[in-house]
Amino acid sequence: MGEHILSWMTFFPVIGAAVIAFIPSERKEIIKTVAAAAAAVPLILAVQLFVNFDRGTAAFQFVEHYTWIKSFNIEYYMGIDGLSVPMVLLTALLSFLCIIASWNISKATKGYFALFLILEAAMIGVFCALDFFLFYLFWELMLLPMYFLIGIWGGPRREYAAIKFFLYTLAGSVLMLLAMIAFYLNVQDPNTGGHTFNMLFMMDQANHSAWLKATDIRHLLWLGLFIGFAIKVPIFPFHTWLPDAHVEAPTAVSVILAGVLLKMGTYGLLRISYPILPDAAVWFSFTLAIFGAINILYGAYCAMAQTDMKKLVAYSSISHMGYVLLGMSAMTSAGINGAVLQMFNHGTITAMMFLCVGVIYDRAHHREINGFGGLGLQMPLYTSVFSFALFAAIGLPGLSGFVSEAMIFIGVFPVYRTVAIISALGIIIGAAYVLWMLQRVFLGPKNEKYDDLPDISGREMFTLVPIGILVLLLGIYPMPVLDLMKVSLNNLIKVVAG
Amino acid sequence: MNDLAIPDFGREIAALLPFLIVAGGGLLVMVTDALVKTLRKDHLSYLVLLVLLSVIVVQTTSGTPEGPVLNGLLLLGNFSRFFTYLFVVIGVLTTIFATGIFDRDGNYRPEFYPLLLFAILGMMVLAAANDLLTVYLGLETMSLATYVLAGGVRGNAPSSEAGFKYLMLGGFSSAFFLMGVAFVYGACGGTGFDQIAAALHSGSAPMPFLTLGTGLMLVGFGFKVAMVPFHMWTPDVYDGAPAYVTGFMATAIKAAGFAILLRFVLLTEPMLAFAWYPVLTVLAVLTMSLGNIVALVQGNIKRMLAWSSIAHAGYLLLGIVAILAPALGGPEMMARAKGIVEEGGAALLFYLVGYALMNLAAFGIINVMGTEPGVDGDQISRYAGLSRRQPVAAATLAVAMLSLAGIPPMVGFMAKFYIFSVVVKAGLIPLAIIGVINSLISVYYYLRVIVVMYMHDTAEDSYQGTEWVSVAAAGLLAFLIIYLGVMPEAFHRGAEIVFRQISF
Amino acid sequence: MTGDLIFILLALLTLVPAVWVVMSRNLVHAGFGLLFTLFGAAGLYAYMGADFIAVAQLMVYIGGVLVLVLFTVMMTHVPRSHGNHGYDRYVPASVFALLTFGVLYKTITSVNWSASTSPAEPTIARIGAQIMTDFIFPFEYVSLVLLAAMIGAALLTREERPAGPANAAKDTEVAP
Question: Does B142 touch chain C if contact means CB atoms closer than 8 Å?
């Protein structure tokens, strides 16, 4: 496995899904066990990656490079650098925990776990692909299981939410497809002189054709890619699919959606848009900062108006992704490192929040903030875990969210002072909606309807505790993750900002 | 020239062997049905399969001669062989689907088998044609046989209506085509493709005749491939005909139509690109857009696929437009022309194969799920909850739909990718954008089928029975759809080689 | 001069009954009108020296198609239409016809015609030889086209559950 570690991580879940397809659908326990095992392997490999990753170089590591579709010079080209490692780790961790969190899925169990594993494969694939075509393929492949997971196992309006999710994302990826073809035709493979999908060649400006060197074209391509990625992030005004999808999706799917899928938008910007079109990135950076600020404030503001816990968390995701954009726009070391760290931290924190919402939903079968009250007495353990997650979300010092947000503001402040100051308001609004919810759900008079709600179970704790430990550790000492990405990201800044 | 060249006789027979097998097979099937009374009816299908498989065997093992045969009436080579394979495979699947339904419902149509073989023969002649005379003959054999196939369900009004409508409009289009042939003949002094090419190169042919003639011929081809504005028959005929015939029409006739359209466009391109190009561009855009937009509101799956087949004709036309574009471009374009023409042709052939796979998979399942044609058996709502009743059938149909929508990793995506990248390469970026937007629109209606199958509960009137052979065959197609979507390289290479032979 | 006169007469023979065909509300009358039109066209072919086409026109259209049309009309008892409904269809039809005429006229007049000076020769023998040599394949192949058509015709007109389409087939195998 050492040789092809990325391929194993990507395709082992597919093998698991194939095995599940042959297990009779009544044997639910076996199906779940196989799924957990299939998701555990990438997690173990991820740990191996974390240990063996060379933190001193910006070059791609664990590279696998094979010809795939020769006539279009499409390659099976996988590799990771400091930008993708945290994402791969996050994906492997959350996927495994989500499989555990889905243990009580009883409707069409077989299909659910098979699709979940395929989803995991596609997500890891996106973060490892270094061939644009391969990247696109994984990106699209991710849509299908997600669509089915929301559409079959979702809430009452699942159909609408699933289709909306699918069409929005597809619209975005189609723009990406066009940009991709444009790159393909205008980037020269320095070895053969032909067209190429190789991202590394695309990143080398010397390989660009004259057409691709024109400023207008570059700006146009940037915008195409940006809209494609913005839908995924989602950036206001392309965000409307997100609350619907989150509200309808089953808990584990929400976790993946917020924890991993949203990161793909910002990952795409950093992996593709920034290094391939650095000048356009600079041209766009102030606008990006504005978009970030809007996301922060709009997301927080909307979150404050929600009465559905899941919707609140969904809007808080929009707000938190705004910090990532803000950090990216600054193009300073602190900004970009903070942004990627925020991607990772938001993945863990929001996963905790969604899992916690799932816990209460499984018991009370609703998520109305006003429908509870005084749960603190009824479910003390649950209350403390959820409060922990919420405090992490508002960036309480000592928890991981604080570190990344602080880094982002440190990075942005010297560059876009006004935007940074306005954005900081988001933190206050964030604190407001979180505390408000905390108060209405856990404090106050006890709702007698819920007198016999059992506290959080061992299995649920098993999914929450590892993330919680991570949040706490990275809050105190973020270097393990920062070390991973520092060199690659600083190299990226050098490329972009010169 | 007037004497039959005796020494070549053996070569010509060898060259015609696949054609002779299909023709003779058709007659044999017919006579067997009439004379051998003890035969169980479904044994005829084995005979048909035997005939079709022997075509494949003969064509693969014996090195059939290449080049023009029969005084240049036919041009044999990779191109004709490629399409023969395609038609034969479609024929095999159609036979399996049809027989399955005959078996299940006990309602035999023995005339189906010889007519199917004759239709395939016509298509083979069409793909090999090297003379307008043979084009017409192939076109007519194919059409006459399919008129009857579509309309032949006795006592079924929608089927009769479909057959009659197809016959009337088909006859009309044939008349246009013939008129066009007359003009081209008048302009070039011959009907052979070589003569036409020679007349075009020498510049002796009068342009008005050529433009009018080729324009009228385009009407004829347009009918066959369901191109807007000659598409009006498509929804009614696709809906009225039994699903196994619709599947055949949607795949084989479209492939045959594009085979000859491709050859003819390449033949006349040097002089007529200026006329073909704007016309086909406009028609391609109209065809895609109208097909996709009307498909959005269809409640009947066969009508939906009919409009989708119109839309796919539009995508295919985009490929032809891309092939034509270099001929009009500047010197820089001309330098890239050869590459674009070759890639465009290969993309078209790949698309036709992929389209055949996904449409046959879809119609294979629809065939099993439907009842009588037109008796409201094909409402999408009847597929509600299919994933729980028949997971294999539902998964197959889902794969087919996703592939038609062009979502990776299905073959439909690779096919569209090839086409669009050639279009972009030819510098027609707006066209590519229109195409991409169109395929985005199409996702909605293809997904609706999946939504109904996977996310709705079983409806009361949903069909409960099944026919396993057809489902298995369609499932195999679904596997191929994914396989070719992930591993398109070998096949695409093959298509490029095939195409090179006709791009002079 | 005589030539022009013959041409004008033949053209009139073609066109006048053609108008009758379109205007008549009696299908049998229209059918007979068609007889004269087709005959006039055959005359025009003969006048141009295209003897084979002229004969084919007579045999196929007048001898075959027209007789079929008349038989069909008489056997199916189509009621005579009354009133003037149908006139509103003349407008789009005439627009279409005029357009077609315009296109054809433009095309034909824009070509630089060169008339053949050699006297017309009988072509039937040459066409026959060509069909049996160069075009033997289409000639033979047409029998299959006809066969497919015959199967279809037999299928669509037969009673429920007869012996099968092969009956029709046996007759046609020698037909062409």
Answer: no
The angle subtended at Cα B316 by Cα B314 and Cα B317, nearest 5°, is 65
In the numeric block, which tokens belong to residue B202?
Answer: 């020498």
Q: Which two tokens stand for residue A219?
A: 């700006």
Q: Please, do chains B and C touch (3+ CB pairs < 8 Å)?
A: yes
The ipTM of this complex is: 0.82
- State residue B467 phi and psi, 5-degree precision: -140, 110
Q: What are the beta bridge partners of residue A187? A: A208
Residue A234: helix, strand or coil by DSSP? coil
**Is the Cβ–Cβ distance between B323 and B344 less than 8 Å?**
yes
CB A386 within 8 A of CB A393: no
For residues A323 and A292, is the Cβ–Cβ distance under 8 A? yes
Please, what's the b/e burial string for C77-102 (b: 16 or more CB within 10 A of its CB; e: otherwise)? eeeeeeeeeeeeeeeeeeeeeeeeee
Give contacts of A178 with chain B, Cβ < 8 Å.
424, 432-433, 436
Domain locations in chain C as residue ranges: 1-77, 121-159
Tell which phi-psi region holds residue C34, choosing left (phi > 0), alpha (psi between -120 and 50) or beta.
Answer: alpha
Cis peptide, bond prior to residue B331, ω within 30 of zero = no
State which amino acid sits at residue B163.
Answer: G
Just give the CATH number of C1-77. Answer: 1.20.120.1200
In tens, the pLDDT along A4-27 reads 888 888 999 999 988 888 888 788
Q: Are strands B67-69 and B74-76 parallel, antiparallel or unpaired?
A: antiparallel
- Which H, E and C letters describe A46-102, residue by residue? HHHHHHHCCCCCCCCEEEEEEEEEHHHCEEEEEEECCCHHHHHHHHHHHHHHHHHHC
Mutation target for B interface from C109, C113, C137: give the one with most B CBs within 10 A: C137
Block means of pLDDT (10 residues each) for chain B, 504 residues, are 54 84 92 78 85 90 77 86 93 91 77 92 93 92 90 78 88 91 88 88 81 89 90 90 91 94 85 84 93 90 93 94 78 66 88 94 87 61 82 90 90 91 85 88 88 78 68 88 86 79 56
- Can you give B290-339 as a three-state secondary structure string? HHHHHHCCCCEHHHHHHHHHHHHHHHHHHHHHHHHHHHHCCHHHHHHHHH
Residue A11: closest CA among A99, A111, A129, A150: A129
What band does C174 get if pLDDT is binned at 50, 70 and 90? very low
A135 in reach of chain B (CB within 8 A): no
